[in-house]
Design a protein that fits this description.
single chain; 14 helices; globular; ADP-ribosylglycohydrolase fold; mainly alpha; about 60% helix
Length: about 300
């Protein structure tokens, strides 16, 4: 039996809040090594702010704010994912001086300002995680559409800043896996349907039989390896997010991606109340509102 719309909406909201929670948790230890984290925190497990960005407790970074900018553009286009609208939304977001911005995102948005072309040129150097971290609004807006159409939507937003085959593979995998979890599919089902084909098609993403991916960089391959090791082999919402951010490196992004996956899989009941209480109230409200507004037909 297909899940009721209320259940799907709840999972969508949990995914969006999970993104923000993972972002806020990971930002504190971004660019730290696991040894540095252990020396300062023991195990980092609470949303306390600080970090190299000197954030106030509960504040988020570009992972969440760029997702919200994208989500607003999609809502304004009545659920369609249009590259030009995405590019304009990202440009406005950058002009508003976000707390953080990736180099690839900045470079290609500056190029968009000059050319007006919303699609960055293909580049082997643009395999960062900046398009993957913001894919959730597209997954929600395209929910219920044919898989081929979902992939087109994913690439429309991704190619504004990251026109790269490995980035595409990661973004499409995440969007489709998120949609599977919204439908109520199990972790095992999604592992067989999405994870194994991803690794078969792109062996660089293999995460089992390899050392624990610590201090993951902004390269989308290392990001996804760290996330999948925590998400699949550790499990549980809080346990997964604590595990992945304590690996250090690009911890706000690994936390954000793990958070959206865990939220979609485990639902609202799994989100730690103390983390939700610590999250910036405006961000919490925006994530919840967008989840409801973006979700496609069920």
């Amino acid at each position: 039996m297909a899940p009721a719309r209320a259940e799907i909406l709840a999972r969508a909201e949990a995914a969006y809040l999970g993104l923000a929670l993972g972002d806020a948790l990971g930002a504190t230890v971004e660019f730290m090594t696991p040894r540095e984290i252990a020396r300062e925190f023991g195990v980092h497990r609470d949303i306390t702010g600080g970090g190299w960005l000197r954030l106030k407790p509960g504040r988020v970074t570009d992972d969440t704010t760029m997702s919200l900018a994208l989500g607003e553009a999609i809502i304004n286009d009545r659920g369609e994912v249009r590259a030009l609208s995405c590019a304009r939304a990202f440009d406005a977001w950058m002009r508003a001086k976000p707390v953080d911005i990736g180099n690839t995102v900045r470079r290609n948005l500056v190029a968009f300002r000059r050319s007006g072309d919303p699609e960055a040129p293909p580049s082997e150097q643009d395999a960062g995680n900046g398009a993957a971290m913001r894919v959730l609004p597209v997954a929600l807006a395209s929910f219920g559409r044919p898989e081929a159409e979902v992939r087109v939507c994913v690439r429309a937003q991704a190619h504004v800043t990251h026109h790269n085959a490995m980035s595409d593979a990661a973004c499409e995998f995440l969007a489709l896996a998120l949609q599977d979890f919204l439908r109520g599919d199990s972790l095992r089902e999604v592992f067989l349907r999405r994870v194994q084909p991803l690794v078969t098609a792109h062996p660089a993403f293999a995460f089992r039989g390899r050392p624990r991916r610590e201090y993951p960089s902004g390269w989308v391959v290392e990001t996804l390896q760290a996330v999948l090791q925590s998400f699949i082999d550790v499990g549980g919402f809080e346990s997964c997010l604590v595990d992945v951010v304590n690996r250090g490196g690009d911890a706000d992004t690994t936390g954000a991606i793990a958070g959206m996956l865990c939220g979609a899989l485990y639902g609202m009941a799994a989100l730690p109340p103390r983390w939700l209480k610590a999250l910036d109230p405006k961000v919490r409200a925006a994530c919840s509102d967008q989840a409801r507004s973006l979700l496609g037909p069920c």
